[in-house]
Amino acid sequence: MTVARHLDTSLRAALERMQPGDLRFDEPLAPWCSVRVGGPAEALVRPSTAQQLVELLHLVTEFEVPLSVLGGGANTLVGDGGVPGITLKLPSDLMPEVLDPGRVTLGGGAAIARLVTVMKQQKRVGAEFLAGIPGTLGGAVTMNAGTKHGECMRIVEAVELATPSGLGWVDVSEIPFAYRQTTLPPNSIITRVRFLLPEGSLAASKAQMDADLLYRKTTQPLSQPNFGSVFTNPPGHFAGKLIESVQLKGHTIGRAQFSMLHANWIVNLGGANANDITELMDLATTRVREAHGVVLHPEVKRIGLFPPRPN
User: Fold this and answer.
1) 70-94 pLDDT tens trace
2) Mean pLDDT of the chain
3) Domain boundaries, given as residue ranges, for the chain
4) For position 148, what pLDDT does the model report?
5) CATH class entry, domain 98-203
6) pTM of the entire structure?
């Protein structure tokens, strides 16, 4: 499958002249996403330096080409029609780490697990709620990832952003955030995040992480391709319980299914496509609204084109 063209010859040539760490045209994105569905990227770019990233953003602006950001692919649904323009994925080692005691600066492309590892090494606390959550730190900031025990932006001191004009740090006090959402300046990419990790009870920290990981293993379908929670929890409700109440737990469309373990997770049974998943999401949204008067809001980020099923 090929995706609709947005990259003209001159832009392709400019991308090749950049000599980024990785440049792939018509690259299948399903293998890059945890749910394992989706069409190809017209161009997948993984810059090898911060300067290349800034140059790439400048080209995006100059050529007015669509830009999509793919973090760890853990919370992303790629359309079956692929992703036009440029898909950006930051390498985990694009930016240097700064590991001061209690003040840790990590790359936006680094795995969330890296923060948890550093926290343990420094004998600090504060990031326990992120243990076991897949994805990248840039993605965790963008969606203010978290659990009932905490949220990402509460331990962030500042974020470094790349724009077409360069790199710069922004203090967390200047970044609006709320439940499962963070508002960043337009046309900006998270390159590094500075976290504050306080001192505290290491025994309590370990106990919380052990309990959270055990809960995940027993209640979430981690052995099947998925993208984590599908919907955010509406105020006063749990999305999974709402979906289960309208008899959709275990419901299947095509090769996608609301998990039998957790109704707010959709799993790929093997061979699912994006249409299977979006139809499940639409069905849950409709039934929950009709039954309870509650609107479900997706936690999953959609990128690319979602053409209707062929007749």
Assistant:
1) 988 889 999 999 999 999 999 999 9
2) 94
3) 9-88, 98-203, 223-300
4) 86
5) alpha beta
6) 0.91
The Cα–Cα gap between 127 and 111 comes to: 13
Q: Are 50 and 93 contacting, i.e. CB atoms less than 8 angstroms apart?
A: no
Closest by CA to 86, choosing from 117, 55, 108, is: 55
Backbone phi and psi for residue 297, each to the nearest 5 degrees, phi listed first? -115, 130
Q: Which two tokens stand for residue 202?
A: 């290491």
Return the CATH number of 9-88, one of 3.40.50.2000, 3.30.43.10, 1.10.3720.10, 3.40.50.10330.
3.30.43.10
pLDDT tens-digit readout, 291-307: 999 999 999 999 999 99
Structure token pair of residue 17: 């002249």
Residue 165 · residue 78 · CB < 8 Å:
no
Give the tokens for residue 259. 């998990």
Burial 201-220 (b: 16+ CB within 10 A, else e): eeeebeebbeebeeeeeeeb
Please write the tens of the pLDDT for every residue from 101-130: 999 999 999 999 999 999 999 999 999 999
Say how many C-beta atoms besides its own lie within 10 A of residue 5's C-beta: 9
Q: Evaluate whether 98-203 and 223-300 have a shared fold.
A: no
**Which of the four pLDDT bands, split at 50, 70 and 90, describes residue 6?**
confident
Return the active site residues: 180, 229, 299
Minimal CA–CA distance to 73: which of 90, 53, 93? 90
* DSSP 3-state of 207: helix
Q: Is the CATH number 3.90.78.10 carried by domain 223-300?
A: yes
User: Chain centroid to CA 211: how far?
Assistant: 24
- Residue 310 CB neighbour total at 10 angstroms: 5
